[in-house]
Design brief:
disordered N terminus; 30 helices; GmrSD_N; about 45% helix; DUF262 domain-containing protein; alpha+beta
Length: about 800
């Protein structure tokens, strides 16, 4: 293996599992057996089965090659018999699991088959195997070895029994119970996962030894062969050794994935035309080259990404990145509509990052192009990671939160940014300034799009893919009037980014001014409403200073919310038609970003702020708001008297607006007010409609449509039957609302009866007293009920005949 004879012929005195290594795992149990009973994990079961298959074989030349065991060989001086002597240690990097299982195999079989002297000799050899992962693991191994020199354990007890079925193999006192009954075994060992896994494996060794009726197989342990590959042969550092050994106290699917990936690359070398590559001064096949990069510089990057984490287990982080990369590939290659993309099986598996169970999912989403691009991407990240992190942050970021392309969990917004970043790294030569400019535009798009589903996220990603071709100088491209965008996604935001790019190209000072405003915790990139008509930079700076007093991170600042929401009411007063109110009536930041959307695209709101923010001082703005809420509604009189009255109710009535903000009833549509996405609690804002409805529902009537009140949107109708002419007739009473009226409806048999009472529009209404029994309402309800009862009697008479 190596031309250095000293290394290749080195005699190893001691094997030490270093403290940084993972716990012993081949003896762990899983709950995947019959009836959910725990059984040995698949990897451990497979390995011990192969060992016993080799041991019981009659073929004299039967061997089991255990592949390479990588590690570090070093020599230290130790005191022996009063004199210093060289002791050669081997610290395994990869192979700890196999070595530990062999240690347990030698201990058990030697304990069964060797005489007293043989046991003593074996104990002196096995004593050179030590486990440093935990103190309890180290002490347990020492105590276990010492048992070879005592008679504390009867390994077999029933070794003369004949077993027809392996499941029937049960010693009277199994090996685990015997060890736990020893005087030196204490409860702390039960908390050590390495010790527990060792006991499980010994239990399996005992079972197989009995089941196969083994005898004199100790000498056959020589059939187990492995090769040692010292790290020093390749000039690898101890830092890499520590890094790779920290791959996890918990085993992950990453190693299985990596092995499957290498096989897949190897199988496709010819069809993909993958040529040999040079790595560390040597030519090697592409599959080895790719995996070497995964094991070294790419893994180093994921290791560094966790420098602030106590858990340096980067395997899951690396595998998570692969899932995200392939999900991105799936989205970009999807030919269906965005509406159904998240229902696709592969999309679901990749987005949920299901536990690794085989390579088929990856194979169906990998190609020659995606493999080559993955190499480019990981090379870029590993070389420029720190610069990438610095360039990737949105200007409004608040420490210690940060966007990290290697982070395991990403929001839907961050998924879109992830796409923008990795596609830049694949398509463009790295330039930190260009990348920062590109992602600044992307963050503005993503932040101001309503990404509340994968369907929405996919639409934004497709827009980003159209723009990424110009990501090496995105401002230059946006400022060019001849450049075109096919996607209809985020048109308002793209229009704003174009305008800002032109301003920056006309005067570089704009970049700093815009960036300062875009960093505002509420505006977050959407600042076009601050740009004056004359495009003067001084006017923009003035508008921003005024806006800072009106807005904070939660929306409208407390000063302008506290005075009965004066700013919101002033905005509402500017509308000339109720149908123009297309956003939620709110001055707070909420899920739909209604207020922010109004600032960016509502012409009424933008016109109002263009006027208000240009005023000389904040005091002037405040006085102007007072004027706005005191004026008469601009809605013309005549046919729209109802609308005019309602409009004034919305911006003049402090009771109404306070109630709406307090209870989140901020959605206005078709003369109703309700909570967003609610199917009940619809408040009819005309006159006494709500009180009439409340009164009738209290009398047992059923609501027929949106006119429901309170927490019982549809009271259960209790119909009654009237006996007439020898038959029963079904009678029901219901309430219905149209745009301006309440109707009492009933059915008597198949006959429908409707009684309508027109409402009286009022100027003030205390909405926190909506559900009540006001004296002024009772006559309306009585009138409806009396009139409907008269009609019911007539109808019953007719039906009875």
């Amino acid at each position: 293996m190596n031309s250095n004879d000293t290394i290749s012929r080195a005699k190893i005195d001691k094997i030490t599992i270093p403290i940084i290594q993972r716990d012993y795992a081949q003896g762990r149990k899983t709950h995947s057996g019959e009836n959910g009973q725990p059984v040995l994990n698949a990897a451990g079961q497979k390995f011990i089965n192969e060992i016993f298959s080799t041991m019981i074989s009659d073929a004299g030349d039967k061997q089991l090659e255990l592949d390479f065991i990588y590690g570090s060989i070093f020599t230290e001086k130790e005191e022996k018999a009063g004199a210093a002597a060289d002791v050669t240690y081997f610290n395994p990097l990869d192979g700890q699991q196999r070595l530990t299982t062999l240690f347990l195999m030698y201990w058990f079989v030697g304990g069964v088959e060797l005489d007293k002297n043989g046991r003593k000799s074996l104990a002196s050899i096995l004593g050179n195997f030590s486990y440093k992962t935990r103190t309890s693991s180290s002490v347990f191994c020492n105590k276990l070895v010492n048992e070879l020199n005592s008679e504390g354990i009867d390994y077999l007890l029933r070794k003369d029994a004949v077993y027809q079925d392996r499941l029937e193999v049960e010693p009277k006192i199994n090996i685990i119970t015997q060890i736990e009954n020893l005087s030196w075994f204490h409860d702390a060992y039960k908390l050590d996962p390495t010790v527990q896994a060792m006991l499980n494996m010994l239990d399996e060794v005992q079972r197989q030894y009995l089941y196969h009726k083994c005898n004199n197989i100790f000498v056959k342990l020589e059939r187990l062969k492995f090769y040692i590959l010292p790290l020093s042969n390749f000039g690898l550092t101890e830092d890499l050794y520590v890094k790779m050994n920290a791959r996890g106290k918990q085993l992950t699917g990453f190693e299985n994935f990596k092995a499957d990936l290498q096989h897949w690359i190897k199988d496709n070398i010819a069809s993909f035309h993958l040529e040999e590559q040079e790595y560390d001064g040597r030519r090697m096949p592409y599959d080895m080259f790719f995996i070497n990069k995964m094991d070294n510089e790419w893994s180093q990057c994921f290791w560094n990404a966790q420098k602030d984490s106590e858990d340096k287990n980067f395997d899951p982080l690396f595998l998570s990145f692969i899932y995200k990369y392939l999900l991105n590939e799936f989205i970009l290659g999807y030919s269906g509509t965005n509406k159904g993309i998240d229902k696709e099986p592969d999309f679901t598996l990749l987005s949920n990052e299901v536990e690794y169970s085989g390579f088929s999912l990856f194979e169906s989403n990998l190609s020659e192009r995606s493999l080559r691009n993955l190499r480019i991407l990981l090379d870029q990240i590993s070389v420029h990671y720190d610069e990438i992190i610095e360039a990737s942050q949105p200007c409004w970021m608040i420490l210690p939160t940060k966007f990290d392309v290697l982070k395991s969990k990403l929001t839907l917004q961050e998924r879109a940014v992830f796409c923008a970043l990795i596609m830049y790294l694949i398509k463009k030569d790295f330039n930190k300034a260009a990348l920062k400019m590109w992602l600044h535009v992307v963050w503005n798009i993503v932040e101001n799009a309503n990404i509340d589903s994968w369907r929405a996220a996919t639409g934004v990603i497709q827009l980003i893919m159209e723009l990424v071709e110009h990501s090496d100088d995105i401002y230059e491209w946006l400022a060019d009037d001849s450049s075109t965008i096919n996607s209809s996604q985020s048109k308002d935001t793209i229009a704003e980014e174009r305008k800002k790019a032109k301003l920056i190209r006309s005067n570089p000072e704009w970049e700093i001014a815009l960036l300062q405003a875009e960093s505002h915790a509420f505006f977050k990139g959407s600042v076009s409403f601050l740009i004056p008509k004359d495009n003067s930079i001084n006017g923009f700076k003035h508008n921003y200073e005024m806006a800072k007093s009106l807005f904070d991170s939660s929306g409208v600042s407390s000063k302008y919310q506290g005075n009965s929401h004066i700013l919101l009411r002033a905005l509402l007063s500017r509308y000339h038609a109720l149908t123009d109110i297309k956003y939620h009536i709110t001055d707070k930041k909420e899920k739909e970003n209604s207020l922010k959307n109004m600032l960016s695209s509502d012409p009424v709101v933008r016109s109002a702020f263009a006027e208000w923010l240009s005023l000389p001082t904040e005091a002037d703005i405040y006085n102007k708001l007072l004027e706005e809420i005191a004026k008469e509604s601009p809605i013309p009189t005549g046919n729209n008297d109802f609308d005019k009255k309602l409009h004034q109710l919305l911006y003049k009535s402090t009771d109404l607006i306070n109630w709406m903000q307090q209870y989140g009833a901020i959605r206005y549509k078709d003369n109703y007010i309700s909570r967003p996405n609610s199917s009940y609690d619809w408040i009819y804002v005309y006159g006494y409609s709500n009180e009439i409805i409340a009164e009738l529902t209290a009398r047992g009537w059923r609501c027929e449509n949106k006119c429901s009140i309170g927490e019982e949107p549809n009271k259960i109708e209790i119909p009654y039957y009237w006996s007439a002419a020898g038959r029963e007739i079904y009678v029901s009473k219901r309430i219905h609302c149209d745009d301006k009226n309440v109707e009492a409806r009933c059915s008597v048999g198949s006959e429908e009866i409707t009684i309508m009472v027109e409402n009286v529009v009022i100027d003030t209404l205390k909405y926190n007293e909506l559900v009540g029994n006001k004296g002024c309402v009772k006559p309306f309800a009585d009138n409806l009920e009396n009139r409907i009862e008269e009609n019911i009697k007539d109808a019953l008479y007719r039906n009875g005949e």
